[in-house]
Amino acid sequence: MKKISILGSTGSIGTQTLDVVRENRDKFEVVAISANSSVDLLLEQIKEFKPKYVAVYNENSAMRLKEMIPSDIKIEVLSGMEGLKTISSLDEIDVLLTAIVGMIGLVPTLCAIRKGITIALANKETLVTAGSLVMSEARKYNVDILPVDSEHSAIFQCLNGEKTREIEKLILTASGGPFRGKKEKELLNITKNEALKHPNWSMGRKISIDSSTLMNKGLEVIEAKWLFNVDQSQIDVVVHPQSIVHSMVQFIDSSVMAQMGCPDMKLPIQYALSYPDRIVNDFERLDFSKWSTLTFEKPDLETFPCLQLAYDCLKMEGTYSAVLNSANEELVNEFLEDKIGFYDIPYYIEKTLEAHSSISEPTLEEILEVDRWTREFVKKSIK
Ligand code: NAD
Ligand code: MG
Asked: Which residues does the UniProt record annotate as the domain 1-deoxy-D-xylulose 5-phosphate reductoisomerase N-terminal (predicted)?
């Protein structure tokens, strides 16, 4: 029985994680769940999965949840960052599934690593912000970081039994998002509702916007660098609109391995939880007669400058990726509130990167300070 704690149990990945647990009650037990403020859904999850702990980041929501929980249910209600840290470092858990959105997941993830707890990582912003620190702590405490992101799960599966020094290239596939094939002049006035409509995946709001700007792929390039310890020149992106090939690895002898399947996040979630085993399930099977044409094309870096910015940040090293991520988090929020336009996202990210003095091998404190500086700089710039 694997005991699981979930950071962000009410979101897209969090609820699909609980779907996987529901089908495998004999294998997984949920010990703790958490969310920012969605108390109604948390209460439902508490009734169904009977965790021992719940953490609600927002203090008022935590108080509301406490009042809502029926007296016959025994559960500890925690709040704030302390609550997230506690549920990430419980002695009794085997796996922390990080389905929280944003670099706010960094500190709790580090707490889990320092306790020797396996990380099933969906929260890519944490690795983009502090990849060097997180991976060196994971090595120090001998902790596995198992990818939940579908592309990285694909690469991880392609590398099963392979020697990583024989990798020539990682090839990340990208759906291209809702605006594939469009040019900048057609996208200048697009609205958030158009950007939120992803062709193949139904996801949280932030990652949906990131998919429409291709920043999601940029964050994934950085995530891949840290997870698989390759040079940025070894990471390619190819647009594959059908989202059937989830990513590929090219080896030094020219052989290419691909992992395929229907687009469904439950598979990479289940694999991260069941690793190194696989579990029988009734997920939809790939019907090759239906998918007679799979296509691949180059990403359009001119129309989608966010992907290029992410490559640039990887090359420049230091804290540039942290700035890229925090600026993007702020700007996506502003875009979702209709306060800025679509192309203001890359525009202000670039301005912020230009103003930043990078720190090499940053400590946690320095990274958190860079995050504060970035958010303030972005807010001042757009005023
Ligand atoms: P979402 O918006 O649907 O859910 C986010 C979750 O995080 C919610 O449970 C929310 O309550 C919680 N949360 C947000 N702020 C919090 C805070 N301050 N304290 C505690 N909890 C907080 O997002 P999502 O689509 O599930 O994405 C989650 C993460 O997984 C992101 O990093 C995303 O990039 C990654 N990811 C998602 C998908 C997908 O298909 N949705 C695929 C790959 C990777
Ligand atoms: Mg992905």
From this structure: 4-131
Give start-end residues of each CATH 3.40.50.720 domain in the chain: 2-143
Which of 45, 207, 211, 246, when mutated, tests ligand 1's pocket best, judged by the most ligand atoms within 8 Å of its CB?
A: 207
Contact in structure between 126 and 88 (CB atoms under 8 Å): no
Q: Which ligand is nearest to the CA of 151?
A: 2
- State mean pLDDT over 191-214: 93
The burial class, CB within 10 Å (0-12 / 13-18 / 19+), for 21 is buried
Q: 292 pLDDT band (50/70/90 cuts)?
A: confident
- CA–CA dist 364, 106 (Å, integer): 9
Ligand nearest to the CA of 237: 2
How many residues would you count in the chain?
383
- Asked if residue 207 has its Cβ within 6 Å of ligand 1, the reply is yes
Average pLDDT on 342-349 reads: 98
Question: Start-end ranges of CATH 1.10.1740.10 in the chain?
Answer: 317-383
Class of domain 2-143: alpha beta
DSSP 3-state of 94: coil
pLDDT given for residue 201 in this prediction: 79
Predicted confidence at residue 127, as pLDDT, reads 98
The one-letter code for the residue type at 208 is: S
Whether the per-residue pLDDT at 147 is higher than 90: the answer is yes
Q: Which residues are annotated as a binding site for Mn(2+)?
A: 149, 151, 220
CA 57 to chain centre: 19
Whole-number Å distance, alpha carbon 204 to ligand 1 midpoint, is: 6
Half-sphere exposure of 66 (CA within 13 A, CB side): 12
Which residue's CA lies nearest to atom 4 of ligand 1? 11
Per-residue model confidence as pLDDT tens digits over 159-193 = 987 878 899 999 999 999 999 999 999 999 999 99
Position 301 scores a pLDDT of: 98
**From the candidate CATH numbers 1.10.10.60, 2.30.290.10, 1.10.443.10, 1.10.1740.10, the one assigned to the domain spanning 317-383:** 1.10.1740.10
| Mean pLDDT of the 200-224 span | 96
CA atoms within a 13 Å half-sphere pointing along the CA-CB vector of 96: 32
